[in-house]
From TrEMBL:
Protein name, per record: Acyl-CoA dehydrogenase family protein
Ranges for domain Acyl-CoA dehydrogenase/oxidase N-terminal: 7-119
InterPro entries, sorted: Acyl-CoA_DH_CS (IPR006089), Acyl-CoA_Oxase/DH_mid-dom (IPR006091), Acyl-CoA_Oxase/DH_mid-dom_sf (IPR046373), AcylCo_DH-like_C (IPR036250), AcylCo_DH/oxidase_C (IPR009075), AcylCoA_DH/ox_N (IPR013786), AcylCoA_DH/ox_N_sf (IPR037069), AcylCoA_DH/oxidase_NM_dom_sf (IPR009100)
Keywords assigned: FAD, Flavoprotein, Oxidoreductase
Lineage: Bacteria, Bacillati, Actinomycetota, Actinomycetes, Kitasatosporales
Amino acid sequence: MRRTVFNEDHEAFRETLRAFIEAEVVPVYDEWFQAGQAPRDFYYKLGELGIFGINVPEEFGGAGLDTHKFEAVLYEETSRAGVNFGGSGVHVLLALPYIKMLATDEQKKRYLPKFVSGEEMWALAMTEPGTGSDVAGMKTTAKLSEDGTHYVLNGSKTFITGGVHADRVIVCARTSAPGEQDRRFGISLFAVDTKSEGYSIGRKLDKLGLRTSDTAELAFVDVKVPVEDLLGEENKGFYYLGANLPSERWGIAFGAYAQAKAAVRFAQQYVTDRTVFGKPVAHFQNTKFELASCQAEVDAAEAVADRALEALDAGELTAAEAASAKLFCTEVAHRVIDKCLQLHGGYGYMNEYPIARLYADNRVNRIYGGTSEVMKSIIAKSMGL
């Protein structure tokens, strides 16, 4: 069936991106994998390519567009090549919406030009060692100084993607105690300069997958954050976070669909080339049936991901719809990638094959951005259950 979600501009971007990946990423990707992160200077290349500025207003050096469709192309092309762009995904998908939604004109002038060029890489720090899905339970605090010029930040965060290379991190912290009737009250967001005294990066975490995407523990000991770096209003951070969750969950859903599509491509190539008992593996009926069922699931996931993309661009994607898309696409990807790895046999378990890396990378999709169980709760609530 013919897709209608992309136009000529998106396809031209796809060609440019595919050529960039082949020239700049594929030849060195094994080095990134062994190092456990993409090199910092790679993000300058993404800035030069215009990746970071697509949705940034022209006055700050961006393209001034208001769409997630170019991000969608990026998901498809990186998955197709069996690579990812390190921690840069959170820079655009997670951090940028908060800057656009909450930053004052003065803040945008300070933040966005460096954001677009890659001079300042951003990350988002919500999760703490004792609080994952329960965001309202965070313990990190930010107390206003007596002279009112800065906040004093204390606490820690973990699982912060992009945390090693980040130059600024949107840190969620308590500026007030939880309300008696609303424990979500009292959280604020700060654009923290990672060069600040008292700010430190702990371990670069050793993950099962997404090994080229740096993920870190962060610690704050009496970090002074100027009041000029408060994003939005005090104590409303939880509601700001909720406003951006649908776009984050769409991103995970679309990325998972793209991974499943890539897995089918890798498996089809492998079984066509691989010979057993004197015949290509693709010759056997089991291979044909397994790949056919995978393709059917990918087709369904593509339709769900595309529909969510159109709703997101129209400003109509609800929390429940985003949760449904994430739940469906991540579960499809889990099943499809597992079957495609099986078709590779023993070679599918080797990290030199992209299907093995894809298998490990995909597993987190059902955890971060809200677990599958949380997605089911959101959907059930929307059903009146």
